[in-house]
Automatic annotation (TrEMBL):
<comment type="similarity">
    <text>Belongs to the cytidylate kinase family. Type 1 subfamily.</text>
</comment>
<dbReference type="GO" id="GO:0005737">
    <property type="term" value="C:cytoplasm"/>
</dbReference>
<keyword id="KW-0547">Nucleotide-binding</keyword>
<feature type="binding site">
    <location>
        <begin position="11"/>
        <end position="19"/>
    </location>
    <ligand>
        <name>ATP</name>
    </ligand>
</feature>
<dbReference type="InterPro" id="IPR011994">
    <property type="entry name" value="Cytidylate_kinase_dom"/>
</dbReference>
<dbReference type="GO" id="GO:0036431">
    <property type="term" value="F:dCMP kinase activity"/>
</dbReference>
<dbReference type="InterPro" id="IPR027417">
    <property type="entry name" value="P-loop_NTPase"/>
</dbReference>
<dbReference type="Pfam" id="PF02224">
    <property type="entry name" value="Cytidylate_kin"/>
</dbReference>
<dbReference type="GO" id="GO:0005524">
    <property type="term" value="F:ATP binding"/>
</dbReference>
<keyword id="KW-0067">ATP-binding</keyword>
<protein>
    <recommendedName>
        <fullName>Cytidylate kinase</fullName>
        <ecNumber>2.7.4.25</ecNumber>
    </recommendedName>
</protein>
<keyword id="KW-0418">Kinase</keyword>
<dbReference type="GO" id="GO:0036430">
    <property type="term" value="F:CMP kinase activity"/>
</dbReference>
<keyword id="KW-0808">Transferase</keyword>
<keyword id="KW-0963">Cytoplasm</keyword>
<dbReference type="InterPro" id="IPR003136">
    <property type="entry name" value="Cytidylate_kin"/>
</dbReference>
<dbReference type="GO" id="GO:0006220">
    <property type="term" value="P:pyrimidine nucleotide metabolic process"/>
</dbReference>
């Protein structure tokens, strides 16, 4: 892969960004960066300090160390919510921007998040916007965490509402809102397996490189 080749993978929660990005990183021998972990780690620090995610969180973002992103309590519902609240703060986003750019600049990378193709790497040669209906995404996230337990009725409705409220916060914030870059390929993954999404992405990458 060409030096500095960045594949940007954006989209809403539980659409399959991480699954695709990891498979692409493997296939093209590129490092993978999950930028959601940065925002989750900031939220974790804020909550652990007894602060509210609405409080100024720049300090927490500036103090992040690699171990913060390796904690095993970053993918819990209170952090899902808090991450999307701290992520709306311009000072938090500014504090994390260069860290993300340095990662991709040297040897290239597959980077997943919300604003990778629009803000972090606006010149990335490949931009993918991975999406799916909120119902499918709620079920995917549930199945990921509760193998073998059916999600239905009121619990399904609550999971959909949770995912939609995060979508709204992420797409309506003033700074770096979630939206496809003008030059992104959008893949609606409803009814597609992870393998089918991967194949479609690889075909597109081959086209972009030819
Ligand atoms: O990174 P993001 O939150 O966008 O989603 P993910 O963690 O990659 O995917 C959420 C779940 O959906 C995982 O368990 C994937 O295996 C699953 N998935 C799927 O069922 N079908 C797809 N086309 C893509 C992902
Ligand atoms: O895995 P999932 O898609 O559920 O979430 P994530 O990618 O770990 O991101 C958690 C939260 O961080 C998102 O809801 C966004 O508010 C924020 N985020 C962001 O604002 N910009 C990014 N590049 C990545 C994540």
């Amino acid at each position: 892969m060409t030096a500095g080749f960045v594949i940007a993978v954006d989209g809403p929660a539980a659409a399959g960004k991480g699954t695709l990005a990891r498979a692409l990183a493997d296939a093209y021998s590129l490092p993978y960066l999950d930028t959601g972990l940065l925002y989750r780690a900031v939220a974790r620090r804020v909550l652990d300090a007894g602060l509210r995610p609405e409080d100024a969180a720049e300090e927490a973002a500036l103090r992040l160390v690699p171990e913060d992103m390796q904690r095993n309590d970053l993918r819990v519902p209170e952090v899902d919510r808090a991450a999307s609240i701290v992520a709306a703060q311009p000072a938090v986003r500014a504090a994390l921007l260069e860290r993300q750019r340095v990662f991709g600049r040297e040897g290239g990378a597959v980077v997943d998040g919300r604003d990778i193709g629009t803000v972090v790497f606006p010149d990335a040669p490949v931009k993918l916007f991975i999406t799916a209906s909120s119902q499918i995404r709620a079920m995917r996230r549930h199945n990921q965490l509760n193998v073998g337990v059916e999600l239905e009725g009121a619990a399904l409705e609550a999971a959909i509402a949770e995912i939609e409220s995060r979508d709204t916060r992420d797409s309506q914030r003033d700074v770096a809102p979630l939206c496809p870059a003008d030059d992104a390929l959008t893949i609606n993954t409803d009814g597609m397996s992870a393998a089918e999404v991967f194949q479609k992405a690889c075909d597109y990458i081959a086209l972009r490189r030819s």
